[in-house]
Amino acid sequence: MPKATNRRRKRGADEEDTGGGSANKRSATSVLTSLDVNDAPRPELPLFQLNGRHGGDEEEEEEEVTEGGGGGSSSALAVVAAAGSGQGPHQQRRLWVKDRSRAWWEQCSSADYPEADFRAAFRMGRATFAMLCDALGAAVAKEDTALRAAIPVRQRVAVCVWRLATGEPLRLVSKRFGLGISTCHKLVLEVCAAIRNLLMPRFLRWPDAAAADAFKARFQAESGVPGVVGAIYTTHIPIIAPKVSVAAYFNRRHTERNHKTSYSITLQGVVGPDGAFTDVCIGWPGSMPDDQVLDRSALQQRAAAGMMAGSWVVGGASFPLTDWVLAPYAQPNLTWAQHAFNEKVAELRRVAVDAFARLKGRWACLQKRTEVKLQDLPVVLGACCVLHNICESRGEEMDPGLRCEIADDETVPENPVRSDSARKARDDIAHNLLHSGLAGTKFF
Fold this sequence. Notes:
Blueprint: H1 2-38, H2 47-51, H3 58-62, E1 77-81, E2 92-96, H4 103-108, H5 115-122, H6 126-140, H7 153-166, H8 170-177, H9 181-203, H10 209-223, E3 228-239, H11 246-249, H12 252-258, E4 263-271, E5 277-285, H13 290-295, H14 298-304, E6 312-314, E7 325-326, H15 336-362, H16 377-393, H17 420-435
Parallel strand pairs: 3-6, 6-7
Antiparallel strand pairs: 1-2, 3-4, 4-5
């Protein structure tokens, strides 16, 4: 009997030890998962906590440890001495280093890689990519540590640009560049934030007085409509159904057209005559009509401060006619002058539509639901707009096959005319276009 009791006690102790180990694993898992869900910054956790997981989630947490590691065998252990004077085995930490192939990236970064293939992969030539790396180097560069060598700046920027250009899932990005999945995700957000902070003030800004006069002259020469400083358009970016305020992001028009439940956020942009964005407003829910997005934008605040006086921004039928927004006639039975005016407005608006078609064509991540969290998405979309402007300003040609057809539905605002003076100004412009022969027809 004493022996049986001892065996039972020993078996119970083993079960307690096993249960304790599982509790520790669950504790580490819950900490890491809760940080991911709450989007809080990840603290410096002991290596054994990151390595002590097994199963389907092991790879996700391993990436933070092996960010710069690409060499070595996956079965080998890099043994790192723990802090302290002791050197015993129980005072050492072990770091797994997973072997990942970087053959594709090394081939792309080689000097003999064809320029056409590089442009197809990154939507820009080597010269533009080098300029981008030089501009972002100080912001995204990291120093080597005792555990790993830092990922080079060129590779960091390439991960972000390729992810935006292709819209491929992070798991495929990881295989392409030989980095961890969570590492690739972190690099995309870091580079996009650097683009927004450093390059947006340089490449995406409202025109000053001299530039505005040049824009007006170019638009008037092409259409005959005076005072136009830009064309405005609002598109929708698909997203995964959010966990909060899901009804606000529900896109009824896309759902009815595609016969598939759709959620989206809005991207409003003003485009100059060269096809580059001069103003963007990103992130309002997809159920919000275009006129309400405009009312909540910084552009409306600029107009309220009197900074849009003497300038027109041309929009479609989904925008109201105001003292600074020039919208087409929406009523039926148009006169000859009104019909001709609408045709000219459609030509001007086409500048913005074409710019959005190239934007979505270059950066395919805008065409599909992304893995980026909703709160991080405006930064990513803003980076795409900046990269679009850089490519446009440097003459980067886009493959016509990449062009994305814009199919967003327009909604007529509840109050299509908000200013009597704007109504009269629109009538005068329509009359002058017709009688000066700029509307495509003449009186005989």
